């Protein structure tokens, strides 16, 4: 009975965390209605979340400090740069050009990229089952994306490419950081990486922008705060708790509701719709990722 309750609570926690993560794209699209730049919006998200992660980094100590080497902190800087700064920046830029629902479908291919990158750089083997799943996934993305190109603007290809870069950089982060997380623990490692990412965003702003960030309406700052707390900090802990209760493999299967929840939220808040062909493509993508998830453990995207 207790096991059943644990599973049920884990499923509920996982669903809430995934839906909150999915809401980030909706908030970004809503904020763009106020003519805010991608750099400023990302800056608001990171600045609002920074105090929380600094507190976490201060109070939650590394899991196995005796195994940590000095170079490991340099690797955290690198992975914080590519995994949270670059991936988030490409994501925010891409959302300027494509629908939130399509963004989540493209981002959802990152587990296939993890397998491909691991094969190229770590010489891991790819099973026949995984190859089939990858082919299914990309077939679904092509169907979904083709349906968008037929009806949307010329910027759709650019937006899709930027979102793909986001998935690629995040997948690279997952592959490279896998050996660091056992040393630091999920929570401290995430906090350190997010702090590094915030520094990178601030540096980007100071070097490449420098325009004032105090000219926007209250809604922009409020959406930035919601992205930081509701779609970043809270779901990151919910997902960690869900993985602890259910296991990474079971959680990754539940994670398949991510694109679906984004499509639903985009319909409610943005009046976005996908054609029947695109919905079929999304379903094919979810099938492909579900097949891969049954074989390989994955980490949820922040």
Strand content: under 5%
- Describe the global form: globular
What structural class results from the helix and strand content? mainly alpha
- Show unreliable segments: 297-302
- Count up the helices: 13
SSE sequence, one letter per element: HHHHHHHHHHHHH
Structure description:
With 302 residues, the protein is mainly α. It has one domain (8-293). Helix content is 79%, strand content 0%. The protein has 13 helices and no strands. It has helices spanning 2-32, 38-59, 70-94, 100-107, 110-122, 128-151, 156-177, 181-184, 186-208, 218-246, 248-254, 257-270, 276-293. Helix 3 runs antiparallel to helix 7 and helix 3 (70-94) packs across helix 9 (186-208). The longest helix is centred in the N-terminal third of the chain and has 31 residues, at 2-32. The radius of gyration is 19 Å and the shape is globular. It starts with a helix and ends in a 9-residue tail after the last helix. Residues 297-302 have low confidence and may be disordered.
Q: Any descriptors?
A:
single chain; 302 residues; globular; disordered C terminus
Layout: helices, strands, pairs:
Blueprint: H1 2-32, H2 38-59, H3 70-94, H4 100-107, H5 110-122, H6 128-151, H7 156-177, H8 181-184, H9 186-208, H10 218-246, H11 248-254, H12 257-270, H13 276-293
Helix pairs in contact: 1-4, 1-10, 1-12, 2-3, 2-9, 2-10, 3-7, 3-9, 4-7, 4-12, 5-7, 6-13, 10-11
Short structural description:
With 302 residues, the chain is mainly α.
